[in-house]
Each structure stands twice: as C-alpha cells, then as structure tokens.
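Feature request, filed as a ticket because there's no other form

It would be nice if the structure record came with a short human-readable summary line next to the tokens. Right now we just get the raw output. Example of a typical job, pasted below so the devs can see what we mean:
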Amino acid sequence: MFHKFRNSCRNCGAIIRTSNGGITAVSNVTTTQSPSFELLPNFPNPFKPVTTIGFKVAHEGFVRLKIFDLLGKEIETLVNGIKSPGTYEINWDGSSYAGVYF
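Raw output as currently delivered:
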C-alpha cells in the first residue's frame, strides 16, 4: 500500500512511501503552461477612496471579478462577462465602504 508523505513540499513533487516507511519514488512536477488569468496588484495600495485593479486574460472566456470584505461577504462585482485576451484595468471606488477588502 502506498501513502503520500504528509510533510512533502507542495511545489517540489510528491514523496511516496510504502506502509513500512520505505521511500519508493520521488517525482518533480513542472508546468510550462501560462495561467489563463492573472490578477495584478492594485494601485495605489493602500488607497483612499479609489484604487485601480488590473488583470490579464490569456484566452477569451468568462471573467468574474468581485470584491469581498474581511469576513468573506461579497461587496461588489466589478466584472461579470466575456473578455478577449488582453490586459484590463478597473477603477473601484470604496468610499461607500469601511474596512479591509480582497
């Protein structure tokens, strides 16, 4: 019987061991595929009351970009539709809200 070693490095591959504790294999997992979506840092950060949020889309597809508060409550939806490949910027005015947002 094989078990994954619980303390293995998530980005370093998987360490497999037998039920008697002997290591049987080590494999590296690499990827060259670019992400289909990339969220860029907002600026300015911190902001009062407006910030610009950038994102990149590698392939045409549906994009939904939402703002959440510290408790995970959805505050606002900024993007909700099909986007072509490219880089986009959205301005968000947080003057109606107080707190920390994601």
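Something like this underneath would help us a lot:
Residues 78 and 94 are 12 Å apart (CA to CA).
The longest strand covers residues 74-83.
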